Amino acid sequence: SSVVLPDSLISIGYRAFIKCTSLSSINFPSKLISIGDTPFDYCSSLSSINLPRSLTAVGSGAFGTASTAPCKTGTTATLYVPASMAVSVYSAVKYSCSVVAWVYAE
């Protein structure tokens, strides 16, 4: 299943979508500023994550921990990352994913 968040949303909080195992895609609003700690923990079907250019903060384990990450099964999770957030997003997922395809937006 997929989720479309309202355009007015600027922050996704702690564990907002925890254990949404059928969540395969999520449409982040263009005004999103921050993603808290572990909001997508146990979202094992999430395979494509397109982060908006407005993003300025990504919490620890934002896309799960080593045993609960979307890409824990060895499949590739694709992250579309604003170039300005590359280091922050890498820090948030480096222990989460064994295989990740990174796509940087200019």
Task: Show the helix and strand layout.
Blueprint: E1 2-4, E2 11-12, E3 25-27, E4 34-35, E5 48-50, E6 57-58, E7 77-82, H1 86-93, E8 100-105
Parallel strand pairs: 1-3, 2-4, 3-5, 4-6, 5-7, 7-8
How would a crystallographer describe the biggest sheet? 5 strands, parallel
The fraction of residues assigned to DSSP E strands is: 25-35%
Radius of gyration: 12 Å
Task: State the helix count.
Answer: 1
How much helical structure, as a percent, in the residues? under 10%
The neighbouring-strand order within the major sheet is 1-3-5-7-8
Question: What is the N-to-C order of secondary-structure elements (H for helix, E for strand)?
Answer: EEEEEEEHE
Q: What class, by secondary structure content?
A: mainly beta
Q: Mean pLDDT, as a whole number?
A: 77
Oligomer: single chain
Shape: globular
N-C termini distance: 29 Å
Total DSSP E strands = 8
Spans of at least 5 consecutive residues with low confidence = none
